[in-house]
């Protein structure tokens, strides 16, 4: 990722569906975005990447954090609202997993995904990730409160516990090893 990629990212519109609003690019000023980029880019336990489409438009970002030598790292991926549900995330991860395991030489990739993010879970499972655990995390984003209580999201309400400021949402821990990726 280059600092100039932020200019495209701050232009992304927000997700319309509250299910996916917690994963929007934060709506900060360009100065704050540059500060975030510099902080993250100078952290040796993180690596930042840009996802581009066929026209070389910046459509997403991919991050590695908690890098543990060549053993493992934790994945994060975000796509702009106009680029979701088009296969870009799966394609980007397919290319990145080859790079991660073959060129970078890592043994395992881990991630955590909100239980409410069914679209991402399907993508990860299709790529060969397996669930290795789960944990609750504070539901900080306002849309989680909407999801936890609106009747149209009743099928997801079992993923929440607590109330008010103590509301928590279930996250799934997932992993894939180099051998699993190669076998898939």
Give the tags:
globular; 6 helices; 7 strands; Aminopeptidase; alpha+beta; 7-stranded mixed sheet; 29% strand; 184 residues
What separation lies between the terminal Cα atoms?
A: 28 Å
Number of helices: 6
Mean pLDDT score = 92
Major β-sheet annotation: 7 strands, mixed
Rounded radius of gyration (Å): 17 Å
By CATH, the architecture is named 3-Layer(aba) Sandwich
- The overall strand count is 7
- What percent of the residues sit in helical stretches (DSSP H or I)? 25-40%
Low-confidence stretches: none
Task: Using the alpha-carbon principal axes, give the shape.
Answer: globular
Approximately what portion of the residues adopt beta-strand conformation? 25-35%
Number of domains: 1
Characterise the protein shown here.
The protein has 184 residues and is of the alpha+beta class. It has a single domain (5-183), classed as Aminopeptidase (3-Layer(aba) Sandwich), CATH 3.40.630. It is built from 6 helices and 7 strands. It has helices at residues 5-9, 30-41, 88-103, 118-127, 142-149, 178-183, and strands at residues 47-52, 58-68, 72-79, 108-114, 130-138, 160-161, 168-177. Strands 1, 2, 3, 4, 5, 6 and 7 form a 7-stranded mixed β-sheet that branches. Strand 2 (58-68) and strand 3 form a beta hairpin.
Indicate the topology.
Blueprint: H1 5-9, H2 30-41, E1 47-52, E2 58-68, E3 72-79, H3 88-103, E4 108-114, H4 118-127, E5 130-138, H5 142-149, E6 160-161, E7 168-177, H6 178-183
Parallel strand pairs: 3-4
Antiparallel strand pairs: 1-2, 2-3, 4-7, 5-7, 6-7
Quick recap:
Helices cover 31% and strands 29% of the residues.
């Amino acid at each position: 990722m280059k600092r100039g990629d932020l200019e495209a990212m701050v232009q992304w519109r927000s997700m319309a569906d509250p299910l996916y609003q917690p994963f929007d690019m934060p709506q900060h000023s360009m100065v704050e975005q540059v500060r975030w980029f510099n902080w993250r880019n100078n952290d040796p336990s993180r690596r930042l990447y840009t996802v581009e489409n066929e026209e070389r438009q910046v459509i997403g970002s991919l991050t590695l954090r908690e890098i543990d030598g060549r053993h493992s790292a934790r994945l994060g991926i975000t796509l702009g609202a106009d680029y979701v549900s088009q296969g870009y995330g799966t394609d980007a991860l397919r290319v990145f997993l080859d790079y991660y395991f073959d060129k970078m030489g890592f043994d395992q990739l881990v991630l955590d995904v909100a239980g409410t993010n069914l679209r991402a879970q399907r993508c990860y499972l299709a790529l060969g990730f397996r669930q290795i655990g789960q944990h609750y995390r504070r539901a900080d984003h306002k849309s989680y409160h909407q999801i936890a209580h609106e009747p149209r999201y009743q099928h997801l309400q079992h993923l929440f516990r607590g109330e008010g400021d103590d509301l928590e949402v279930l996250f799934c821990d997932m992993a894939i090893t180099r051998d699993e990726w190669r076998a898939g």
